[in-house]
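Thread: "does anyone have the structure for this chain?"

Original post by V.I.:
We have the sequence but no experimental structure in hand. Need at least a predicted one for the grant figures.
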Amino acid sequence: MRQLSPLSRRVTAAALGLVVMSGVAACAGPQDGGAKDAGKDGAPRKGGTLTVLNAEPHADFDPARLYTSGGGNVPSLVFRTLTTRNREDGAEGTKVVPDLATDTGRPNKDATEWTFTLKEGLKYDDGTPITSADIKYGIERSFAAELSGGAPFLRDWLIGGADYQGPYKSPQGLASIVTPDDRTIVFKLRKPEGDFPFVATQTQFAPVPKAKDTGTKYEERPVSSGPYKVVRNEGDGERLVLERNPHWSEKTDAERKAYPDRIDVLSGLDAAVINQRLSTGSGVDAAAVTTDTNLGPAELAQIGGSAGEKELASRVGTGRFGYVNYLAFNPKVKPFDDIRVRQAISYAINRTSVINAAGGSALAEPATTFLPEKEAFGHTPYDHFPAGKTGNPAKAKELLKAAGQEKLTITLTHSTAQNRQTSPEVATAVQQALAKAGITVKLQGLENNAFNEKRWSAKDAPGFFLSRWGADWPSGAPFLAPIFDGRQIVKDGSNYNHAQLNDPAINREIDEINKLTDLRAAAPRWGALDKRIGALALDVPLFHPVYKRLYGKDVKNIVISDWTGVLDISQVAVK
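Reply from O.Q.:
Generated one for you, tokens below.
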């Protein structure tokens, strides 16, 4: 499971050279949830060049190696998949819809087998037809060691997936993927998975014709099934140029609008440079967007009242991704084996100071539940350890006394990276809050890679640390199972079950919910399970991040869904 999502980026006001203000969240229109913008001169039209300014390069531009569900970013323009997300604003965007397939899949009775039928008339950019065998091959090559990096779900879910080494070593392929004809593909799973239609949005489900597979060089000129094809790929994804795929048909693709004729992606840029270029909007930057660079608190706090600043505020897109930042406990380390100590810390936390450290209320929203406050995840409100806005040190002291820990000293491990999620500022806010309850907190800051290695280690995880989790699709399954399913504890590798919880009753409930293919029925059960686990005080939810990103003054048709929380390039038009 991927624990990282788009990170908020700190940008200094001096480097940005502009003023923007926290009042953006209250503005109407596209900046508040991404309402479509027809502009003064009517509806969006085809034509022009869209420029994308990003900090992170689009390295490994191969559907096998990408870790994305094709939600709103560049890969989705080139790689179509069996299913995709509904390209609508807000909560409507959390729904999974057909893409290459005619529907979102047909399960057998217990959701251990899923069948998909491809639409008619699907073609690659060279005009050759897309077949079910190409999708099977595209999935199989994602198992090859030399093409690692993509989502790991199929290795766990498909029968035989755990031992399969990919088509280069095992050309016979996976027997659990069956293609009885050119338009039908069947997946046989080793356990029920009602969320399979969501996983079918991952780029591993993009078709790859075996005859065109060039192994590790495929990323340079991948065969396109989407509305655009790659014509330039330089610097390991730092410069990508996309032009129209002449054989893509909007008759088979209800989701991607494909308005621009050309898309020029420039990556590896400094965050301050990106926001400066977007705010100034000179030349090609007037028709530019970013999918990975946020505005920081300094900029948002300074939006003023002048006409120019109001215009800038109208070009800030706000998004909320399924994500939670939390304090994690490892009960195998004393004194965190005592639930009363964990409860005391839960009561003592001051979420107001944490939110301020994370960038303020415009960039972070307080959390008392592990699941995000979205219906699609099954969010069920609860607050087992009410701390109010500023903490409840009196209740914390009462619990510590009962536990014989009235003079408690503990260590909080965090990253030294300035990402405003597991940062020194957030750690300091926690330290100060717990001090009011009589808890002395020593801070242990680690370089980000060392921090991640330590927090995801089953053997060496600290007892108390800052952590975060983002779901790969909007459901309770990818949120709760990796963190609390005891069968997903990894002894040698990345272990996301920080508490190493292995409760048979919780494991069984996860299995029972996974059998449900009716997502409306599954969602409230995930919420109930979240509430049940929350009572164990194995973590302290702190906040859910909010993303605020500038877009150019000549960009139209802004769509930001609750699936990705970022601007959807497939919907954008330029003047």
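V.I.: this helps a lot. The longest strand covers residues 228-234.
O.Q.: and The two ends are 39 Å apart (CA to CA).
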